[in-house]
Amino acid sequence: MANPVLQNIESLKRAQSFDSEIHQTRLLLAEIPESRAALARELESKRVHLTIIEQTQKDMQLKLKEKEIELAQKEAQIKKLDGQLSQIKTNKEYNALLQEIASLKADNSLLEEEIIRKMDEVEAVKDEVLKEKDRFAGITREHQAKDQELVNQEKNLQSRLQEITKQRQEIIGQLPPEVGDLYNRIVQKKEGLALAPVSGEFCSACQMQLRPQVINELQIGEQIITCENCSRILFYES
Q1: Is pLDDT of 191 > 90?
Q2: Between the CA of residue 121 and those of 56, 58, 67, 127, what are the distances in Å?
Q3: Pick from 175, 203, 177: which is nearest to 190 by CA?
Q4: How far is CA 224 from CA 95, 132, 203, in A?
Q5: Distance between CA 31 and CA 179 in Å, rounded?
Q6: Quick one: which of 135, 132, 136 has its CA closest to 57?
Q7: I need a labelling partner for 110 at 20 to 30 A (CA). Which of 12, 57, 196, 204 fits?
Q8: What's the confidence (pLDDT) of residue 1?
Q9: Rounded CA gap, 42 and 147, in Å?
Q10: Model confidence over 35-65: pLDDT tens digits?
């Protein structure tokens, strides 16, 4: 006649395989929200970077426009002063007006150089914005694909978790209540590892040397024996 204790141990070993997978599955599931959040944070960082570059372009275009307006105002002033030359009565006033016009033209010459430089800078940052938009579009697609992959992984893990939880519950439900309750208490405390094979005279889980009486009780096989140190259910590998 088969030893009922050994039969219970075999059932517990099957349950243990499911509980180990359940524990690992839950760990993987717990990591997914943070992984998705990290993707979202990284994408937001890229978006902020693009926004900064776009704002830089707008600021530079505004400054260029201001310089162009300043140049137009000075050119209008020169035109106005040129029109006043024919109305001057004295050489002194005439020369003073010429000097003012020359000064404005010198200023305009510098402004024109600055405008050309700023136009080059605006074009450069415009190119950078276009490239960054392309990069951001590519990164967005990549992140969306990764996020969808995580969503699919989460669904698959949840499905597998339900499946193996049901299977382990069926196994535990066929055990004597006191054995099932003992196993459940231990597995909750030991992160999915409630059983420990005996290696020589030692518990393989905590490496505690077992007392001779414990070894004898295991060999007799009339009751479930737990490790006095880590509380796991002990068994000999068959």
Answers
A1: no
A2: 11, 12, 14, 10
A3: 203
A4: 117, 66, 15
A5: 33
A6: 132
A7: 57
A8: 54
A9: 12
A10: 999 999 999 999 999 999 999 999 999 999 9
Bridge-based pairing of strands 233-235 and 202-203 is unpaired
Instruction: Write down the residue that tokens 């349950």 correspond to.
Output: 15
pLDDT tens string 117-168: 999 999 999 999 999 999 999 999 999 999 999 999 999 999 999 999 999 9
Rounded to an integer, the average pLDDT of 1-7 is 83
User: Residue 110 is which amino acid?
Assistant: L
**How long a stretch of residues is the chain?**
238
Nearest 5 degrees, angle CA 156-CA 10-CA 164?
A: 10
If pLDDT is split at 50, 70 and 90, which confidence band does 200 have?
A: confident
Helical (H) or strand (E) element with 57: helix 4-85
What own/partner pairs with CB < 8 Å and gap ≥ 24 does 204-210 have?
A: 205/230, 205/232, 206/230, 206/232, 210/234
Instruction: For residue 56, give the nearest of 122, 101, 12, 110 by alpha carbon.
Output: 122
The three-state secondary structure class of 234 is strand
Q: How far apart are CA 106 and CA 88, in angstroms?
A: 22
> Are residues 201 and 209 in contact, defined by beta-carbon separation less than 8 angstroms?
yes
* CA 114-133-116 angle, 5° bins: 10
Q: In the chain, what is the straight-line distance between the N-terminal and C-terminal CA atoms, in Å?
A: 17
Distance CA 47, CA 115 (A): 30
What is the model's pTM?
0.74
CA distances from 81 to 85, 88, 92, 109, 183 (A): 7, 11, 15, 17, 102
Closest CA to 232 of 200, 207, 212, 203: 203
